[in-house]
Structure prediction request, 336 residues.
Amino acid sequence: MKDTATHQKADIMQDVIIIGGGAAGLSAALLLGRSRRSVTVIDAGQPRNAPAHGVHGFLTRDGVSPLELLRQGRADLAPYDVRVVEGSVAGAQRMDGGFRVSLDGGDVLEATRILVTTGLADELPDIEGLSERWGKDVAHCPYCHGWEIQNQAIGVIGSGAMAVHQALLFRQWSPTITLFLNSAPQPSDVELQQLAARGITIVEGIIARVHAVDDAVSSVELADGTSHPVQALTVQSRVMARAAFLGELGLVPVPNPFGEILESDEMGLTAVPGVWAAGNVTDMKVTVLAAAQAGANAAVAINMDMMAQELEQAVAAHEAEAAAGRPAEVLGAPVG
Prediction:
């Protein structure tokens, strides 16, 4: 449910605050809600895949629009103790018994655990006209969008060491591939042989702009003024974890050849006890479906961590009761 109230002061302590309301965050919220945990999802309403026409490779949901998928995901949360608060997180601090999360609007929320599912932000090459077509006929993943541009004249914009790989990969979806080297390294002799064997054209030179006609990519113009017709483009963006708000907790993204991500173990636990991460923010390779599963995995880990703490507290209370000569209680029922 959507929360529209103002919470200038911290309201009741929640079990879990989930920062990010995409597939990973909503999947985690669903599982935690079904585990009888109180959950608040904070969502800025800026999903990475919003420009795309549809989500693909998601069993039973193939082709659904990204925003419709999230609407359905929120609706699934209605029966449970889960609320969705719309806003952006400004910061997070540790406090006794958990964490305090501050929103840009001044609201403050508290919880014993945090799950970060904010995803990634794409940084595209600085090419005029490119960002306007991003998520439409400018793609980055053939498994997500290759089917929609199959058999078209596809241009691969070189922006790093993976340019040749990307060109060879997209060749599976179209026989007409042009690799625009742009800022990518010169291919090795082996790579040149591979490109030639697959009939991939190589064009050297820096790209100045992307042209579109009738709301569709039409050509790529180089800095020397030459123009090359294309029907679709693919480019490897630099991806950056949306996690600046975690700095006060000592948790910062780590660099890799493709950008920056948060580090976590296989169940999503970060280097900060009590803070988990799931989805693209910690693994740039996962698809929407895989992100949903990662969120579910993190939810299970969080619930088990809370159960372990609750068990430790219950045992300590039981021993204290026994030492004081009073009958112990388990779940409110006298024992013995």
